[in-house]
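Model it.
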Amino acid sequence: MAKIIAHGRNIIRMGSVFSDDKEAVQSLGRATWLYIRSVMNQLSSPDEDEELYLKEVEKVYHGSDSAIGQRIVNSPERILAAWKQLSVELHSLPVPDTKALIETDKSIIILGDCMAICEKIYRSPVPLVYTRHTARFLSLWALLLPAALYSAFLDLGMVWAVLPASSILAFFLFGVDELAMQLEEPFSILPMQSFCDQILVASEILAGNTDDDESSIAAGGKNETTNTSKVAVIPTTA
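Modeled.
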């Protein structure tokens, strides 16, 4: 997911550098967010994310752009539709040199590769029989562990410590097993909503109205210089 976020930001950055049309760059930023948000929706449980996904798409794509959001949402393959929309927005940028778009398109290709890897992980979990076999083996091992530790603790005169020691060992080993089960499908514990929000923030910063910001900074500096020049000099008397 980190690679997807990095290349998503890179697409917006390169678009803002190569094109002076801020509205087109902002549309490119929204399309980048829509693709990454659709990836998150694909890798999440429908019961948990579907309603939130629809609300966020409606919030970002409103007004004259609402038809784009509805088309992506209603598509049977949302990720592919969003991927196509991202390519369309990129190649709609007015740029002086079309070679710049080809270089930016490489990041879109990498986004598709990353999505294929994520889908492979999501759709190819460890077979259930492996998980059940491991759980049964650990249960049997933990059940017989006190018998194996009894003679050692008897020689030490600490028979009472057999059960606490067995419980501690079983706790940590079952914890490792639980971690392994979680790593089979890591997307449920990743802060994917935060990743998507970072793309919106990057779009606002990289595709924002930087000229106005520079003008305001220049005007502020000019006013400060003028105010400084107007300071009255009071002569001192001997």
